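Problem 12. The chain below contains 45 residues. Write out its predicted structure in token notation.
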Amino acid sequence: MVTLIVGQGAVVGAVLRRVVIPTVIVIQKVRDTRIVQAPNGVDAE
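Solution.
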């Protein structure tokens, strides 16, 4: 049972890394473009 849980955790971690890292990169790029486009450096949220 313990090895099963650890194995699932590793799979979940790998999936999360594959999904979360690209998502974070995209969010950062969107934030960068927003800041560049915003007048006077004011970030409109």
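Discussion. The first helix runs from residue 2 to 37. Students who got a different answer should revisit the alignment rule from Section 12.3.
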